[in-house]
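Hi X.,

You mentioned you wanted examples for the new student's onboarding notes, showing what a folding record looks like when two proteins sit in one file. Here is a clean example. The first protein comes first, with its sequence line followed by its structure tokens.
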Amino acid sequence: MCLFLLSCGSSRPKTNVEERKDYLRGVGLPILVSIQPRHNRDKKELQLFIKTENLTKIPISKFQILFFASDGNRQILIPEESKTPELICSIRKKIQPHSIHKCLVGPFAYSQLWNSIHVQSISFTTEDEVRHVIDEDDLNDVILWL
């Protein structure tokens, strides 16, 4: 990694986010997703602030992330006001190249404390109507947990 940074000729050190973006562009992964969970333990609530950045030269027309919250025993939890457990961030607006779009998921209340969040899938459609799915092996690369 040091050789790559030196060859860029940058006069200032890169942040971890900048390094991650360079890596993703280099391996052909088109997005960077930052997720900041917030919770109110007393109320057993969960809220997710999500920032999605398009790293490509092609607009993204539809974008979706599917999440699940689980308890300490890794059992999937269903929010009190829902019939199904999935939490979805869905962006239907165009995400232009090199731009960021924010999404808020929740707040959701649970009957018991949630312990972890599992991203099931990330999918998006480019402007040319080609649908892409980030496979499970690459999810950790495109997601930054804040």
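Then the second protein repeats the pattern, sequence line and then tokens:
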Amino acid sequence: MVHMATIVPISLSVGANRIIPTVAIPHPLGNPNMTAAEEKKLRRHLVENALKALETEVTEQTVFKDED
């Protein structure tokens, strides 16, 4: 499982094993200040990172930092 969240310490405290940091509490997978096209690109990027995290074998809690 991948936990996508804005507050990583909470994800760590509940024992999530794969964690993807997201944008902001009211908009975890988006940014209302972006154009629709920019926001779609951001969302796709976050979901692609989550899919990479799912493919990655982990033995302990891992926070997957943004690679771009």
